[in-house]
Each structure stands twice: as structure tokens, then as C-alpha cells.
């Protein structure tokens, strides 16, 4: 979804925007603010710094009582008509800010709509031209989804890979359609395990940054992969990860 800001909401790649749905809750109070990761680069999808894009999934589920529950803000946004006005706040957030080093190795781990901040990174890296920035490093995206129809922005990412094959690597994990050689479902950590040695080597480099956005469960799976590899080098993985976080090279935004 693309929203016009008239250039009055400057933001950086990796930040979030707050949205307040119209109406009131069951207690008659205004709805609470809901944060969404920004899915566009600072220039926006039209390159004029006057828009902000969000990646929104309509939330509808049945609870234990058999009642259909609809997410307030996601349904509000998905039901909007072109031209509608939306209450927004922000931008906010420092955890997921894109590295300024154009030679960095940037490993991005996403599930579902957690892809949003990485689309903003990748647009700046591969779809835009800047006088003061040209990406010469390695961007490696792992995207995990349940079905191939859920691979958001797939065509965009494939164009980026075709355009910059030496600087962009792309791996999908489709859990309900793919398995590994052991017949296990292909979750994001399962796909990463296929590159475990290479990833561990990259994590030991000074200019490697890891970003994780999406479902909380994937972090444990990644820890499980890295523990034994680090141990082989006489390194305590959890202490090493703590140091990475301290130096802003391990950045996590999960739910």
C-alpha cells in the first residue's frame, strides 16, 4: 500500500510508521496505534520522497470459542479506498536502520510481512542511483513463507538478482511445499542450515550485519545452527551474539 505524505514525513530505511485506525474500541476509546515497518526506501516508490509504502496482511482468524476475529488496523487499512486519509505517526525506530557502509555484507532474514524493511534496503541498493551511495557489498536475503503464493515482492527481488548477481543472493523457504534432503519442512532456518558453514564464515567478518524481522520462532532455529559451528572454533555462540548485538551487527524485530 502506498500513502502520499506530501514530503512531510521524512524517514530512513528500516524505520516504522504508526497507524491509528478510525473509530473507537469496545470501550469507546480511540483505537491504539499499530506500528508497521516501512516497505519503501527513503525516496519512496516513485522516487520523489513524497510517499511511504507499507506491507499489510489482512488478519482474520477463528479463536478458541469459534468466533471470527478481525485485526482492527489491518482490516481498516485493507478496506481503504483510494484517496482516503489515514492518521499516521512517526517515523520511529533505530533497531533496523540500514548500515551506511556500502561494502558491508548484509544478511536479511524475513518471514511473511517481515520482508518490509528489507524491501526498503534492497530498493536503495539495487533500484536507485545516489550521488553519495553505491552498494558494492553482498546482500543475502532469506525469505520464509508457508506457500509460494505468499512470496511477497518475488518479481522485484528476482529482477534485482538478475541485475546484480554478484551483489545479491536470494533464497526462499516455502514450508508447505518444500523439504530438505531429510524430508523436513523447509523453514527459514532449514534453508539457512544448507549454507551453515558459509554463513558462520560471514558472521566472523567485521563488516557483516544480520537483520531479522518476522516471526519470533526463527531466532531459536538459527541459534541451533550456530551453536555447534561456534563451539568448533572454541566460541560460545550466545556470548558472541551478545557482542554482535552490542556492536549493532545483530538486529532483531520479531513478534
Describe the 3D structure.
It is found in: Plastid, Chloroplast. Residues 1-98 form the FAD-binding FR-type domain. Its cofactor is FAD. This protein is an alpha/beta fold and 255 residues long. It has two domains: 2-92, Elongation Factor Tu (Ef-tu), domain 3; 105-254, Nucleotide-binding domain of ferredoxin-NADP reductase (FNR) module (Rossmann fold, 3-Layer(aba) Sandwich). It has seven helices and twelve strands. It has helices at 72-78, 116-127, 154-163, 188-193, 196-203, 217-232, 237-246, and strands at 2-4, 16-20, 34-37, 51-53, 60-62, 68-70, 87-92, 105-111, 138-145, 168-174, 208-214, 250-254. The strands form four sheets. The protein has a five-stranded parallel sheet with strand order 10-9-8-11-12. Strands 3-2-7 form a three-stranded antiparallel sheet, with no helix packed on it. A two-stranded antiparallel sheet has the order 1-4. A hairpin with a 5-residue loop joins strand 5 (60-62) and strand 6. The chain starts with a strand and ends with a strand.
Amino acid at each position: 500500500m502506498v500513502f502520499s505524505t506530501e514530503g512531510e514525513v521524512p524517514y530512513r530505511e528500516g524505520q516504522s510508521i504508526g497507524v491509528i485506525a478510525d473509530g473507537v474500541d469496545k470501550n469507546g476509546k480511540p483505537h491504539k496505534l499499530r506500528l508497521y515497518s516501512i516497505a519503501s526506501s527513503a525516496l519512496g516508490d516513485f522516487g520523489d520522497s513524497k510517499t511511504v509504502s507499507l506491507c499489510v496482511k489482512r488478519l482474520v482468524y477463528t479463536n478458541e470459542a469459534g468466533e471470527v476475529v478481525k485485526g482492527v488496523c489491518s482490516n481498516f487499512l485493507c478496506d481503504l479506498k483510494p484517496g482516503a486519509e489515514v492518521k499516521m505517526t512517526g517515523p520511529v525506530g533505530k533497531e533496523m536502520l540500514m548500515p551506511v557502509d556500502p561494502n558491508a555484507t548484509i544478511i536479511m532474514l524475513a518471514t511473511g510481512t517481515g520482508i518490509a524493511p528489507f524491501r526498503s534496503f534492497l530498493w536503495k541498493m539495487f533500484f536507485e542511483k545516489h550521488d553519495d551511495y553505491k552498494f558494492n557489498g553482498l546482500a543475502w536475503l532469506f525469505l520464509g513463507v508457508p506457500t509460494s503464493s505468499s512470496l511477497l515482492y518475488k518479481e522485484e527481488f528476482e529482477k534485482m538478482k538478475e541485475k546484480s548477481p554478484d551483489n545479491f543472493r536470494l533464497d526462499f523457504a516455502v514450508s508447505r511445499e518444500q523439504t530438505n534432503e531429510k524430508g523436513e519442512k523447509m523453514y527459514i532456518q532449514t534453508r539457512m542450515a544448507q549454507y551453515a558453514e558459509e554463513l558462520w564464515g560471514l558472521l566472523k567478518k567485521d563488516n557483516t550485519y544480520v537483520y531479522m524481522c518476522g516471526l519470533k520462532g526463527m531466532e531459536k532455529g538459527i541459534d541451533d545452527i550456530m551453536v555447534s559451528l561456534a563451539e568448533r572454533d572454541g566460541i560460545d555462540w550466545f556470548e558472541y551474539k551478545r557482542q554482535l548485538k552490542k556492536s549493532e551487527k545483530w538486529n532483531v524485530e520479531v513478534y
